[in-house]
Structure formats: C-alpha cells, structure tokens
Amino acid sequence: RKPIRFEPPAMTSLQHSARVRNPIDQFVLRRLEDAGLEPAPEAGRLTLVRRAYFDLLGLPPTPEQVDAFLKDESEDAWSRLIDTLLASKHYGERWGRHWLDIARYADSGGYETDIYYRNAWRYRDYVVKSFNDDKPYAVFVQEQIAGDELWPDNLDLDPRRVYIVSEEKQRHLDARIATGFYALGPRIHESGLDARRLAYETLTDWADTTASAFMGLTLACARCHDHKFDPFTQADYFSLQAIFADAREVELPLWNSMGEADWRQNYPRVVAVQEAREAFRLFDAGMQGKPMSAEQQAQKQQLLAAIGQAVLNLPTSTAGQETIAYDGLMHIPTASVLGREHPALIKPVHLLERGELHMPQHQELAALPAALAAVTKTPAELPVIYEARKQFALWLTREDHPLTGRVIVNRIWHWHFGRGIVETPNDFGNMGQPPSHSDLLDWLATGFARDGWKIKNLHRLIMNSSVYRQSSQFATERNLAADFDNRLLWRMNRRRLEAESLWDNVHSSAGTINLAIGGPPVIPPLAEDEIASLRDKWHWVTSANPAQHTRRGIYILVRRNFKFPMFEVFDSPVSSQSCPVRDVTTVAPQALWGLNNASVFDQATCMAGRVINEAGENRMAQIDRAWRIALGRPPAHDELTSASQLLDELEQSSSAPRNALPESLESVPLAQAQALSRLCLALFNLSEFAFID
C-alpha cells in the first residue's frame, strides 16, 4: 500500500510527554509505554558530541571541538552542532560510504582475473558530492537510473568562453556519471567469449541491484520461478531486465572538443616515452650475457635518463583557462556510464525457463512489476526504446510510491541507530522483518517526500529527537526480559565503527590523516604476510606519494578478490551484491591487527609525538591529552593512576626501537618515547576506541 501520513500519538496520552522533542519521540514513547518499558535517560554531552561526529563525519572530534561544545550552554547548541557537521565536506564521505555498500561499489570485477575498473572512482566521487550538496534523493535516484535519458547533453564549449563549462552542463555531466552505478558490478572475464551470456549476466546484475537498492525487494528470487512469498512473477523479473535492454556501457570523455584538440596536440610526448623505452629495450637485449664497458654503462644511464625526461615532459593537464587532469600517460579522462545501444543491436529479452539462458520462452517487454503498478494506478507497460529507464525512474520517485521513500528513510534510520525500523533494509517483502514502528516509518516517509526528499533535513529530525539522544548505558530487568534486542528503542544502541571509520580514527588520533577529497583510489603499502595471498602482486601497486597512504578509508582501492587486509578483518562488505547491513564479528585477527601490525604501531608512535607536542613534558598532562584525543574524554582518576604506573613499567622495559621515531620524539629520551607510544597503542585497542555509545 501507499504510505499513510499518520498523526503522532497525542501528547496528553503519554506518561513521558516531557521528553518529547519532536514527533519521532511521540511514536516511540507510545510503543514503549504500551509495552510497559522505561526509556533510558539522555546521554551525557561528552557522549553526544562524540556520537554526532562519528555519525555524520566518521571522524573523531578534536579535544578543542569537544571543549567548544561543552562550553556552549545555549539551548540550540546541539542543533547548531548538527548543522555545522552537516556543512562539513567530510559529511559526504561518511554517508557516501554507506551508499557505496548499497551500490556494491568496487574498483574491479572480481572472480579469477579481477579485471580493473579505472573509472569507478568517478562514481564514488559523484556519490560523495551528491551527499555534500544535499541533492534531493529523488534526483539522486533518477540520475543513477536514467541520467543520460533525463538530461542528455555534452561538454561542447561556448565559443565566447573557450574552456569554461557552464554549471548546467556540469550538472548534466554529473547525471551521466551517476549511471556508473551500473558499470561497476561484478564481471566474469571469460564471459566476454559469449556475447549472449555476458549480456544476460549484466542484465541480471542490473535488475537485481536496482530492485534491492531502490525498492528494497528480493526480486532476484523471481528469476527462475515466480516469487514464493511476494507478489512478483518471472514475467515481472524479465520485464525489469527489459527496461535496461536498450542500454550499454560506454566510456564518456570528460572534456569538450577543445580539450581533445589539446590532447592530440600533446600526444607526440607520449610517443617520445614509447620510443625512449624501445631504445632502452633494444640496448638491453643487445647486451644480454655480455660484459659492459664504462662507455656502455654510461650509455645505459643516458637511456634511462631519457625515459625519465620523456615522462617528466608529459603534461599533467590541458593548457588554457580550465585544466583537465589526464589519466595515466595522457589517457583521455573518461567515465564508464550508460549509453544507448544502436536500435539494430538491441536484443529482445525472453522469459527463461528456470532462469537458464539456453531455455528461452516468450519475449518480455519493458514493464513495471504488475503488483506495484496496480498500487500506484500506473499502466505497467513502458516505452520500448530509449524511454523505459526514464519513465521507470520517474515512477520510482513519485511521492506516493509504496517503497522508495520507505526504503531510504529506513536506511537512514539504520545508519543512525545500527538497526532499521525494518531490520531487513533490502527486503521489504513478506520474508523480511516487519517494521518495529510501522506508523513512524510511514510518517517519516511521507514527510521526507513532502520536504523535497532532503536527506540533511531527515538527519536533523532524527538527531534532534530524544530517542537519538538516549544513553546506551541503561538497562532494567523488565526491559531486558521484554525486549532484549531493543527493537522498541528504549535505549541507544552501542555500535562498533566500520572498518573505514576505524582506520580514519587511528590516523586522526595519530595526527597523520590526509583529509584530501576525491580522486583515483589510493593503495597503501602492505607487509609481506598481508600481500602473500594475492597471486598477481602487480594488482596492488603502492601509491608512490607517502602522503596518500593515510587518506580516508573510503579512498582505498576496493578489489573484489583481494580486500584491503585491515578492512577484511573488520568486516568490510562483500561487494558482489548490494550490502544493506554489514556484519559485526569479534574474532582473534582483529586483536592481532591492533596489537601487532607494524602500521598500527607506527601510528601509535605518531600519536605519542602529537601528545608531547600538545601537552608538553608533564606526564599527567600527557595522559590527559592522550585520553582526550583517543576517547574524547578526560581519564578517570583510576585510569590516570594506572596509566602513570604503566608508563613507569614500560620505561623500565625499554628495548631497541622497532622503527625510526618521528621528529616530534627525537628530543625525548628513548625509553620515555617508547613507553608513551605503547600507551597510545593500548588506547587504540580499547573497545571504547572502536565503539560509539
């Protein structure tokens, strides 16, 4: 059914009406009081500020940011903090990473050869920018499904402005890049040998992911037979595939005709690199097995220098007022997007018996799932060519659509609370979990659509509620007995940081994090044991610039058949399909990484240097600063005493340094520097460091 705008329960009927900050509280308190459950008290301000920073930015607050919030005693201090965080450029990185789970984002195709997607990162950056810009979710959906059909355009320049691209054309380009959603799915290398199979596997991925991500449906169950539990048929499934039958993946040049002319003008410089390499290859081949004279050694060095000079001569961008960075050795910058297949090459989509490609039945035309079309009183049939995706996207983003608003509101709720109102965000069907607060879900969904599909306003609504501000450190025997899993939200859920946020937290605490935004994926160095399982080591080409090694986790290369080891240990998602909920496990390798990994120890050493820089030489001040940096709070008295005793013991057991110490520790006695580094390492390994209350 369509969402209904339910009225919030009357304030006069609520026992805890004084706790109500907005209608969310009215819905939740009504359920709690009906169940006889007591709500938790409000969390302390130290807890709230840390919760807000990690929730919206995925980064810890600095001690100064914590102090600023604590000193602000105005009534609107909390709401203004939320607005400040939502305005941060790092908000889009945090919430864009959530969406990338849904979009099954990766930089490679997976399976045996794990083919590389050199343009996938442009879609990732589009997602980050969309969240930062607070793009209406309806537009966000439309762009990803049919940006090329809704906003067809190119970057041809205005002769009066030469290299300048208008804002309108840039928006239309972003809409094209958005369709990269369909260009980064898993892909079997060998399927390229069979065009029919490759097309079928591609349409299957597109249909399955579309249904999961935007409609919260397990429509994939209807590929081999009518859905066993939901009102969807095989015909519905293959009609959804047919919506994409006239689309194909293309590489879209990201410049105008003048930029292309500049590239062609400079291309001889690429030829110079190739020729210099060939000259060296010929020389090297001619010298195989022969001793080299001093003159020949000099010639070899000259050849190598010629290669280096030729590479240095390559331009990094076009000339002119508007610079465009090249990809690789002057590769044309492109994005992998959806385009139109030639009409003569559009292949019909057939219903397949048991989903087997070699068992085609009758042809299916592009159409909406019949049951959903009936709910929206919309004809199921869609235009046959070049309009189906457009009409499908517009239908999905109707204000009264029975699923779209509910699904995204539920996802936002899940990412704030660790559990959705519907606990199965990709399955709103009969086999999914029923909503814990169905009236609240509908109230949020209808309000979200009426408000222009603005996600930042939804954050404000949720985070300004008393429900969000509850303590997680609360329990009564009755509450635990009646609702052990806290489905009715009588307290806040304690949540562990995702792998990327834990990485960011370590480097933020160490003071080494590089907060640059966007760009191609970065590849940090790995220890020999970490890279040992990768068959082709050249698949992991370490970024040459050390500054790139401490970028935020969202920018680290995502290979489907070789996960970044630290992320794998901390439950990064399987990217072969849409991931609605990340696993949270507790396993021994997590402790081993935190205690024994050389890179973590290096960051602990850097944090020790930061502590000395900021706290000076006083031991108690150093301990206080370390706690405030790592945990967002001062140490308790017993923690202060224990930490001081631990530093004494560690100084007495000092050994040779594992790695070179940073400059900030060079003036400190070695034993003291090592002891403080190990204390910082211990803080990294506290559960409080990895969990948000």
Mean pLDDT: 93
* Overall outline: globular
Determine the number of helices (DSSP H or I, runs of at least 4 residues): 28
Question: Roughly how many Å is the radius of gyration?
Answer: 28 Å
Structural class: mainly alpha
Strand arrangement across the biggest beta sheet: 1-2
- Low-confidence parts: none
How is the biggest beta sheet arranged? 2 strands, antiparallel
How many beta strands in the DSSP annotation? 6
Can you give the helix content as a percent range?
Answer: 40-55%
User: What is the terminal separation in angstroms?
Assistant: 36 Å
**What portion of the residues fall into strands of 2 or more residues?**
under 5%
Provide a short characterization of the protein structure.
The protein is mainly alpha-helical and 693 residues long. The chain is built from 28 helices and 6 strands. The radius of gyration is 28 Å and the shape is globular.
Task: Describe the SSE topology.
Elements: H1 23-34, H2 45-56, H3 63-71, H4 77-86, H5 91-102, H6 120-132, H7 137-150, H8 167-178, H9 195-215, H10 234-243, E1 247-253, H11 257-266, H12 268-286, H13 294-312, E2 334-340, E3 349-352, E4 360-364, H14 370-375, H15 388-396, H16 404-417, H17 438-450, H18 455-463, H19 477-482, E5 495-496, H20 499-510, H21 528-531, H22 565-569, H23 588-596, H24 598-615, H25 619-631, H26 637-652, H27 670-684, H28 687-690, E6 691-692
Antiparallel strand pairs: 1-2, 3-4, 5-6
Helix pairs in contact: 2-4, 4-18, 5-6, 7-8, 7-15, 9-10, 12-13, 16-17, 16-18, 20-24, 24-25, 24-27, 26-27
